[in-house]
Design goal:
heterotrimer, A mainly alpha, B alpha/beta, C mainly alpha, B: alpha/beta, Rossmann fold, 5-stranded parallel sheet, 40% helix, C: mainly alpha, two-stranded antiparallel sheet, globular
């Protein structure tokens, strides 16, 4: 498909987006917002990108991703309180726990597609959510796992504190950079092309001789692991882990983010979606407790008239030829 | 077509859009709050009121807010505090801890609130406390009554205004074991307040020589209690001690009343919040605790009720109850402390509040109250009540059975579990 | 626990199961016959309950005189009127929803799912705006409320009436689907829409009617379940999850699958309530995973277009 020209590791748009984010702490308070919101937006942008690996790039409509995000958050907190308060270790555990959760789900559902896939992911999402609420000895139940520290970044030669929201923002940005780079490479690797083939026509991909089951399982595990990473960061931002992020609502929110931004057609769509979603929640939420009404309407109209999402308006489609 | 052409122009558009969106956000201000006083020469004192407007405690959260607003209006009518007007802002914390965190962050960082007030649900209260801890912001927990609030989750910046589960158990359990029976069943809402309250009740029951036969955990937002009521009937306890809150207890009471199970056992509800009764008074039964009632025969009560009613002629709940009362008292005492110390310095105000004595007359209760310097919990009169068989009007739902002094209801366990940070570790600020 | 001790929980589970089946059936109609997941099903269910509350209490936007006349009518009549009228009043919402969903036909079914997820959000907020956040209780006529003695325990009378209503409602749906021309057309349309069109039938109209039927089922379930589960804005979400779960369990597109799935879920929830009441809701998810692991398409599922 991309004969002749290799895919560059870095693209100008990538760098521009990173730089744009890097300036956020400089002006976010001047426009009447607050640093913590920046942190949340960036974490959800990472999460939405991880999620879009499944939805946008592989065509697997998971509706239970909150489970993996939440698993990461809890694993981060539990590792910190029970193993060792080391940032890298805890983030590693967060990724690992979510990936294992992903593998478990994948083992049950990877032979499914379409709506059946959605239904089963919802069911598994509910199971994880329920377990989180019920195991209060471990997770703190409905009240959440509290007293999670923002651990310092130990780099060997220096140690950076993350207590401040700005410091945390830049750390999350660093993670975001790594994750986006990784995803970019991944979807342009042979693995990514097979995912795309599966997305376009699973049956054909199978006839061509790919072990579709294995690819679908692998991509879910990867996406779950990265969602868990975002969840670990969220636990740091909130200093706690709550079961709510695992609920059907929150799982739906990340689908909305990916879709609003245009995750089905563009690489950066989920980032745009996360920004729009969280800003809308904060801005509309400040006027009326009924922000969901207006945001829901906006979303419905988008699905009806612009299913490729806002990204379709602003960004060049990922693959112009496919449309 | 190569993907590297997602292009500079496209990317520029993204960043431009980000900026535009952010810009619009600020344009959309001012936020939902009361800016009437902003023209004054002195900077106003700003309070962030963290009240649920939806979820299990949405109804109570709004009643809490009415109490706080009344206190604020009374100070503003007198010319404010330290010559500065008092401003407030509120946002829906949704009975959801994650939302509580975000709202607290926004109030402190973006809205520059010097003080936070509010919360019903212990999870939300904990979430807000964590944020307040980080910034050193003083936080008045008005109505969350989990014993852990002034125990393991206590904080130097937080003050707890409601009587807790242990207080109510102390006031109720011992006499119930003697008068009613030794076989107790617990029905417990499955979250921190429920668990800690059940534990406190269990300890009291066993101390008095009673026995807990089972503890049935009820998930939050349960509406169909059939399975639990079947078990209650099979177990046949002497006393059922409930720690069920918010709208859940309304539904439970309704179902018990419908089946006429009131007489099958003695039902004790740890604490009965007024907003949870209003609307379904006909289902009120059993014995329950409260820390205030609008028909207490004490001086000042009728006047307070009158002021409250004049301020809120349209209120869905026609009289102030314990939730609104706690919101009012917490806000009033905070503003008084600011006035008396002559500063908004948080450490100075914390010190002024610690050990603070409040007379029975001033708080419209039977006994003097004080703020415990060790746990930051307000030690106050605890009442036991049951449904009033001879009400004088349609709001007169309680018959007060007894009252316990702060000493009788004192939660001794909290002294051991609560560890406050030294002042030096609290970020100091002035507003 | 002895068998005798378990019996009450089994009875309770059966009653609950019939209610679950009713709840799931409307969802199944739209999913099985139109290949659309309607996540707004729960919101239509909630609207049914709220409308019933408005009719029965009565809190209607009527002139005071008319309202007073209606309020003087015995509760039994008002309750019956609520049960008959509320589904009719909710039906237009279904029509509008179907209109909106038309734009997603022929596209990935994911879009229908997303659209209805968005509409569920909107409807829930709408309910919150109109009725506020507080809980309501639907009053039940004296004759079918209260309790009765059985197995030496007191039971809620209405629960069994509700189960009875559910059976009647399901029987009506069965007749409509299996014994009428309309039902035959709908089923044919689900299998081969071109064929139906070629035979000169208006597929568009057919779809609207299926949606209306599904919507009315949801609303009716809302009325019947309101006295048991209470009325509050969040009830829609609480209802939609078990209903789709039952469908997956029973098998997409199967009437008896939905009924059996509902009863099975009710029994499992009821029985686990006897041993570990706080885990009882969890048991239904585990049941689903167990069944789906061994029977990929649920109990009665046929191969459907959804898997392609």
């Amino acid at each position: 498909m991309q004969k002749g020209r290799p895919i560059p590791t870095l693209t100008p748009s990538m760098i521009a987006i990173w730089l744009a984010f890097a300036t956020v702490p400089l002006w976010i308070e001047k426009v009447g917002l607050y640093q913590y919101l920046g942190v949340e937006i960036l974490i959800f942008a990472t999460y939405a990108m991880a999620y879009n690996l499944v939805l946008g790039h592989s065509g697997l409509p998971s509706f239970g991703h909150g489970a993996f995000f939440g698993l990461g958050a809890y694993a981060f907190g539990l590792a910190q309180q029970n193993i060792a308060p080391d940032l890298w270790l805890c983030l590693g555990v967060a990724v690992g726990a979510a990936a294992i959760g992903g593998a478990l789900v994948a083992a049950f559902i990877s032979h499914r597609r379409g709506i059946y896939y959605s239904l089963l992911t919802i069911a598994f999402g509910q199971v994880f959510w329920f377990i989180a609420i019920k195991s209060h000895a471990i997770t703190g139940g409905e009240d959440g796992l509290l007293k999670i520290e923002r651990l310092p970044v130990r780099l060997g030669f220096a140690t950076l504190e993350l207590r401040d929201n700005i410091a945390l923002f830049y750390f999350v940005l660093a993670v975001f950079v790594v994750v986006t780079l990784l995803l970019w490479r991944l979807i342009h690797s042979p693995f990514g092309r097979i995912l795309k083939a599966i997305k376009q026509n699973e049956t054909r991909a199978r006839f061509v001789g790919y072990d579709v089951w294995r690819y679908k399982a692998a991509v879910l595990v990867l996406s779950a692991g990265l969602s868990g990473l975002a969840g670990g960061l969220f636990a740091m931002a909130q200093s706690s882990a709550f079961p709510d992020v695992m609920s059907l609502h929150y799982s739906g929110y990340v689908v909305m983010m990916a879709l609003i931004g245009g995750g089905l057609v563009t690489f950066w769509g989920p980032v745009l979606g996360a920004i729009v979603f969280l800003l809308a929640r904060d801005v509309i939420g400040a006027f009326t407790t009924g922000w969901m009404l207006w945001f829901g309407l906006l979303f419905v109209i988008l699905v009806m008239y612009k299913p490729e999402g806002l990204g379709g308006l602003f960004l060049r489609p990922l693959s112009a030829r496919a449309r | 077509m190569t993907k590297s052409r997602i292009t500079r122009r496209g990317a520029l558009k993204v960043s431009l859009m980000t900026a535009t969106l952010a810009g619009t956000a600020s344009l959309f201000g001012p936020w939902q709050h009361n800016r009437v006083w902003a023209q004054g020469t002195k900077k106003p004192i700003k309070l962030g009121l963290t009240c649920d407007a939806s979820g299990q405690y949405g109804n109570s959260g709004q009643d809490d807010l009415r109490g706080m607003r009344l206190a604020i209006e009374e100070f503003n009518a007198k010319g404010g505090v330290l010559g500065r007007k008092v401003e407030w802002i509120t946002a829906d914390t949704e009975t959801n801890p994650a939302t509580g965190t975000r709202v607290a962050e926004r109030f402190i960082a973006q809205e520059q609130c010097g003080f936070l007030i509010g919360a019903l649900h212990s999870g939300v209260a904990n979430a807000i406390t964590q944020v307040a801890n980080k910034y050193g912001t003083i936080y008045m927990n008005t109505n969350s009554s989990a014993p852990s609030e002034a125990g393991e989750n206590c904080s130097r910046v937080k003050f707890v205004w409601d009587g807790n589960g242990t207080n109510f158990s102390k006031a109720a359990v011992a006499s119930a074991v003697q008068k009613i029976g030794k076989k107790w069943l617990l029905l417990t809402n499955d979250y921190v307040w429920g668990h800690t309250t059940a534990a406190a009740t269990k300890a009291e029951v066993e101390k008095a020589g009673g026995r807990i036969v089972d503890n049935l955990l009820v998930p939050q937002n349960t509406r169909d209690f059939t399975a639990y009521l079947l078990k209650v009937q099979q177990i046949k306890p002497d006393v059922v001690a409930m720690a069920i809150g918010g709208d859940d207890i309304k539904a439970l009471r309704q179902q018990i009343a419908e089946l006429k199970l009131e007489d099958k056992a003695a039902w004790i509800n740890n604490q009965q919040d007024w907003p949870d009764i209003w609307g379904v008074p006909e289902t009120l039964f059993g014995v329950f605790g409260t820390n205030w009632y609008h028909k207490l025969p004490l001086p000042g009560v009728p006047e307070f009720v009158k002021r409250w009613q004049t301020t809120y002629p349209q209120s869905p709940i026609p009289v102030p109850g314990n939730v609104s009362y706690n919101g009012y008292m917490a806000t009033r005492e905070l503003l008084r402390a600011i006035e008396q110390t002559g500063t908004t310095n948080n450490i100075a105000i914390i010190k002024a509040l610690e050990g603070r004595k409040m007379s029975a007359l001033d708080r419209m209760q039977n006994y003097d109250a004080y703020i415990d310097p060790v746990t930051h919990q307000i030690q106050q009169t605890i009442y036991l009540a049951k449904r009033n068989p001879k009400p004088v009007d349609k709001t007169d739902l309680f018959e007060i059975l007894s009252d316990a002094t702060p000493e009788q209801a004192f939660d001794t366990a909290s002294l051991k579990t609560c560890k406050l940070k030294p002042y030096a570790d609290i970020p100091a600020y002035e507003q | 626990m002895s068998i005798v001790g378990l019996l009450p929980h089994l009875v309770n589970g059966l009653a609950l199961g019939l209610l679950f089946a009713l709840l799931a059936l409307g969802f199944m109609l739209i999913l099985g016959l139109m290949e659309q997941i309607n996540l707004a099903h729960g919101s239509l269910f909630a609207l049914g309950a709220y409308f019933a509350y408005a009719i029965a209490t009565p809190r209607l936007p009527l002139p005071p005189d008319l309202l007073a006349i209606w309020a003087a009518v015995p509760l039994g009549w008002r309750f019956t009127a609520a049960m008959l009228l509320a589904p009719v009043l909710v039906a237009p919402f279904g029509v509008v929803l179907e209109r909106m969903m038309r734009r997603t036909y022929g596209r990935d079914p994911l879009y229908g799912l997303l659209l209805t997820f968005g509409m569920a959000m909107v409807l829930e907020e709408l309910i919150r705006t109109v009725w506020g956040t507080r809980d309501y209780m639907l009053p039940v006529p004296r004759g079918i409320s209260g309790g009765f003695l059985m197995l030496d325990l007191i039971w809620s009378t209405y629960r069994f009436w509700a189960a009875g209503f559910a059976v009647v409602a399901m029987a009506i749906v069965w007749v409509v689907i299996e014994r009428t021309r309309f039902g035959a057309l709908v089923k044919a349309g689900a299998h081969d829409s071109e064929m139906v069109r070629a035979l000169g039938h208006d597929l568009e109209k057919l779809r609207v009617w299926v949606f209306v039927l599904g919507t009315m089922m949801a609303a009716l379930a809302g009325v019947i379940l309101a006295p048991v589960w209470g009325i509050r804005p969040h009830m829609g979400v609480d209802a939609v999850v078990p209903s789709f779960l039952i469908i997956v369990l029973g098998g997409v597109g199967s009437f008896w699958g939905a009924v059996l799935g509902g009863i099975l879920v009710g029994m499992v929830v009821g029985l686990s309530g006897a041993y570990a009441s706080e885990w009882s809701m969890m048991s239904m998810y585990l049941l689903l995973i167990a069944v789906v692991t061994f029977r990929a398409r649920g109990l009665f599922g046929k191969k459907s277009v959804l898997e392609a």
